[in-house]
Amino acid sequence: MKSDDIFCKLYDVWKRDGKVIFENDHAYSILSVTPATPGHAIVIAKDHVKCLEELRGIALEGFVDAIPSTSLAIQGIYNSNPENMVRFYQSLKENPPVPPSADLAIRMLQDRNLRIKPDTAYNVGINVGGYAGQLVDHLHAQLFPRREKGPGMVTAMEKLLQE
Fold first, then answer.
1. Any residues with CB less than 8 A from the CB of 147 and at least 6 apart, and which?
2. What is the reported pTM?
């Protein structure tokens, strides 16, 4: 990974500090510092590419495989001790790396589902391009663990686009 984006620059730091929750030869995952749900993770391609179309063969397979593997890693955090997730959000609240992190961490700490292990239900989203909301020009997927029935991606997008 050789670029100036945050995912390339901070990989070694995140790896050293134990923030990488899953890794294979082609992707790695971290818990999001701007979480939308407890356990929200980011799956990041190790190759510096902007979109899925730029990955081929085993690199694409490795990135896609990292998505369900990240879900299992999140379940593993809960299996070992749900308080590890609580500690992550407490640390995020006390040491926010970006301005919204502290408020979002407080929201996660107040979420009634924080200590509940997610099952295998999750939503995945990939923003490609600025119009779609991609803020970092490096392929990554957002993984949102789900604990309760709620709107899927299509319903959520319909509501968002109507606003």
1. 38, 113, 116, 118, 119, 121
2. 0.92
- DSSP code at position 141: E
Q: What residue ranges do the domains of the chain occupy?
A: 6-162
Taking only the tens place, the pLDDT of each residue in 31-46 is 999 999 999 999 999 9
Tokens standing for 65? 């495989």
* Long-range contacts of 124-131, Cβ-Cβ distance < 8 Å, separation of 24 or more: 124/67, 125/153, 126/52, 128/50, 128/51, 128/52, 129/51
Q: What is the CATH number of domain 6-162?
A: 3.30.428.10
DSSP assigned state of 114: T
Phi first, then psi, for residue 35 (nearest 5°) are: -70, 145
